[in-house]
Amino acid sequence: MRKGSVAPSVPSVTSQLVSQRGWDRTGSGAVAAPPSPPSPSGAGPAAGVPPCAAPMEEPLVLHPVKLYVYDLSKGMARRLSPLMLGKQLDGIWHTSIIVHKDEFFYGSEGISSCAPGGTLLGPPDSVVDLGNTEVTEEIFLEYLSSLGESMFRGESYNLFEHNCNTFSNEVAQFLTGRKIPSYITDLPAEVLATPFGQALRPLLDSIQIQPPGGNTFSRHNGQS
C-alpha cells in the first residue's frame, strides 16, 4: 500500500461482500450481515465487525387460487330464461377451485379432483382470480379430507341448497378469506323465486350433478 493511501474500513468491505454474495435480502427485506471472523479465545468480536445476525425465518410461499366457472346450460339459460322464468339468467353455474396445480370440485359423489380443465366439461367459460394462499398442499389435503367426511359427503349433495358452488365458496374462504361472486351463489334463490322454479322444484331437487372425468378424493392419497 502506498504512503498516503487509507486502508478500507471493515464495514466497507462487509458491505461489498453483502452485495456480492446476495446477503442483502431476507424474508423481511432486511439486511443480514455475514458471520464475524473468529476471535482469539476469551476475546469479543473483532473491532468494527458486526456480530452474527440471528437466522431469519424462511419466507412464506404463496400459491395462486383460481375459480373456474362453467355454464352447464351452454348458453341455453341466457336464451330461454326470459321465456321460462320471466327473468334473465346468464348461465347455470358449476364452479371449482384451482390450487396446488389441481382442480377440486363437489358433486353427488363427493369431493373430486383432476388436472385443471380435465373433466368432460372442458375449459371453463370464465376464470376468477381469488388471490393467493399460504396454505400448503399437505394442510389443504387434510382440510379436504375433513370436509369429505363431514359437510361434503356425496349424499349431502342438493342441487339448490348444497352444491358445487357451496363447496367452492367454503374452500375459497378457507384459502383466501374471499367469497366467490354473488351472482353464482344467488342463482338458486333467483330460480326458486319464480313460479316456474317453484313448480319444478320437486323434479330439480332429485337431480344429481357429477361432472365426469374427475377422481373421487380419498383420505389416504388425495385421490382414488
Automatic annotation (TrEMBL):
Swiss-Prot/TrEMBL catalytic activity: S-hexadecanoyl-L-cysteinyl-[protein] + H2O = L-cysteinyl-[protein] + hexadecanoate + H(+)
Entries under Pfam families matching the protein: Peptidase_C97
Domain PPPDE: 63-205
PROSITE patterns referenced in this protein's UniProt entry, alphabetically: PPPDE (PS51858)
Chain intervals for the UniProt region annotation (Disordered): 1-50
BP GO annotations: protein modification by small protein removal; proteolysis
Entry keyword Protease: yes
GO molecular function, one term: peptidase activity
Keywords, in A-Z order: Hydrolase, Protease
Domain of life: Eukaryota
The protein's Enzyme Commission number: 3.1.2.22
Entry annotated with the keyword Hydrolase: yes
Compositional bias ranges of the Low complexity kind: 41-50
SMART domains per the UniProt record, alphabetical: DUF862 (SM01179)
Family: Belongs to the DeSI family.
UniProt-recorded name of the protein: palmitoyl-protein hydrolase
Organism: Dromaius novaehollandiae
Upper classification of the organism: Eukaryota, Metazoa, Chordata, Craniata, Vertebrata
